[in-house]
Design goal:
Elements: E1 6-15, E2 33-40, E3 46-48, H1 54-57, H2 71-87, E4 92-95, E5 111-114, H3 118-126, E6 130-132, H4 138-146, E7 152-158, H5 167-177, E8 178-189, H6 191-197, E9 209-210, H7 213-222, E10 226-233, E11 239-245, H8 252-264, H9 269-295, E12 300-303, H10 307-316, E13 331-332, E14 350-351, E15 363-366, H11 372-378, H12 380-384, E16 388-391, E17 397-406, E18 409-416
Parallel strand pairs: 4-5, 4-7, 5-6, 7-8, 12-13, 12-15, 13-14, 15-16
Antiparallel strand pairs: 1-2, 2-3, 3-9, 8-11, 10-11, 16-17, 17-18
This protein binds ligand DWN.
Length: 417
């Protein structure tokens, strides 16, 4: 791709590594980089202007485990069941197998994982799955071939392909190991949903690319593979599941998605310039709201020490600028490796949910807004005591939850204002 084709549309300022939680002693040595975003007018791919070395991000200390985002366990079980039913694969490989939440739905006799983070590769090896503790490259695909593996009927990857810099190499490596009748299925956040919902917080070091179906279609085609189906998913605030093969007939969902993206303007640079304006407004609205609450003597905490909230807090200066130091007092997270640490850049303390009394706070900012319905229902006592939620997606708003009948049970649903 020629760099002349890449046009910058968003500058989110200096950012740390989104998942590099740290202790106070390491504040002075924190690595920061310029988080800027470009649109390639030729391939239509949206990417970061500056990539961070993968070894700095994905290593022994990488803390995000799929199993801690527990609603995802059900998602991966259902995905595996669907893939089993439709494609009945005899050989399966997962790229980016994390702590094995997808792998464990398949027999370890015929399933292997690829995972660059040593801590997770150890877990899936312990579960009996052959796991290559390496980055996904054409070199690794050759090694797997030389180790005697047959070509794979199913290659799967979730929230992984958009993490890799060199997409031509990624897809060449897949082509190298995909059986002639096999399917490559991968899920990643949807660029269209991000633009529709102003969820700019999907932009951080781990996402060097944000995929549209349009860009993927162009890049896969160039590498001799073809998208034959697209599913739109609600997970992670809106993702696409993309089905790829050597030569299966293309289904209507591909054309429909390409059309939807074109209708929204994803092929035009001005759409991204308009998005950049909405991102700036989102920042101003969030800071204004938090400053007002602070001045009114209200206390605000956050749930979910997400990579996404690293982007929000650093872009908005929350916890970063001295005059915005304590707008959000703390973050709770279910992940043990994040607890007792400080959030990247903002240095807001991360603690376990059990260690605090949520009723001491007036507002909860949803760092994990993608799990808002789950979190609101877990925090029923806070809701009953009049506690309120804050989100910035799709617009900065305050939500109060109400009991609403859902079939046979009552659930909390948030009404946003
Ligand atoms: O692609 C990626 C996605 C899949 O996960 C990575 N690049 C990094 C990561 O992004 P994230 O940190 O934004 O993901 P989540 O899944 O939104 O993270 C949710 C966080 O919130 C986890 O640390 C677990 C925590 N959590 C919680 O404290 N209470 C989650 C739930 C549901 C809860 O009730």
């Amino acid at each position: 791709m020629s760099s002349k084709m890449k046009k910058e549309f968003l500058d989110l300022g200096k950012h740390p590594i989104a998942n590099a939680f740290l202790k106070e002693k390491d504040f002075d040595n924190e690595f920061l980089f310029d988080l800027k975003v470009v649109f390639d007018t030729e391939s239509k791919l949206v990417s970061l202007k500056e990539f961070v070395e993968p070894e700095k991000i994905f290593n022994e200390n990488y803390p995000y485990t799929t199993s801690n985002s527990f609603p995802m366990i059900k998602h991966f079980k259902e995905t595996a069941e669907m893939l089993m039913k439709e494609f009945n694969p005899l050989t399966v490989m997962e790229i980016g197998s994390n702590d094995g939440v997808f792998l464990k739905n398949w027999s370890n006799d015929y399933t292997i994982g690829v995972e660059p983070c040593g801590n997770f590769a150890k877990v899936t090896k312990g579960m009996g799955y052959q796991t290559y503790n390496e980055f996904w490259t054409t070199g690794l695909s050759e090694k797997i071939k030389n180790d005697g593996y047959l070509l794979f009927d199913l290659i799967y990857a979730a929230n992984c392909i958009c993490h890799i810099h060199d997409l031509d190499d990624v897809f060449k490596a897949v082509k190298n190991l995909l059986h002639k009748d096999g399917v490559f299925v991968f899920e990643d956040p949807s660029l269209l949903k991000i633009l529709e919902r102003n969820s700019y917080d999907q932009i951080y070091d781990e996402h060097p690319h944000i995929f549209s179906i349009t860009a993927l279609d162009n890049i896969l085609m160039k590498n001799g593979l073809k998208i034959f189906r697209v599913d739109n998913l609600s997970v992670h605030g809106g993702s696409n599941r993309v089905y790829v093969s050597h030569n299966r007939p293309v289904e209507p969902s591909v054309r429909e998605n390409l059309q939807k993206e074109d209708d929204f303007g994803l092929n035009e640079f001005k759409t991204y310039q308009e998005f950049a304006k909405r991102v700036e407004k989102s920042k101003n609205d969030l800071v204004d709201l938090l400053v007002k609450l602070k001045n009114d003597g209200k206390r605000v905490m956050s749930i979910g020490a997400t990579a996404k909230s690293t982007t929000v807090f650093n872009y908005c200066g929350i916890g970063v600028s001295p005059w915005q130091a304590d707008l959000i007092e703390l973050i709770t997270d279910t992940t043990k490796d994040k607890q007792g640490m400080c959030a990247p850049g903002s240095h807001i303390p991360v603690v376990s949910r059990e260690s605090i009394d949520i009723n001491d706070y007036d507002y909860v900012y949803l760092g994990a807004w993608n799990f808002k319905d789950v979190i609101v229902n877990i925090e029923s006592e806070f809701v009953q005591n009049g506690g309120k939620f804050i989100t910035h997606v799709p617009n900065v708003s305050i939500g109060s939850a109400k009991w609403v009948p859902q079939g046979n049970i009552n659930e909390f649903l948030v009404e946003w204002k």
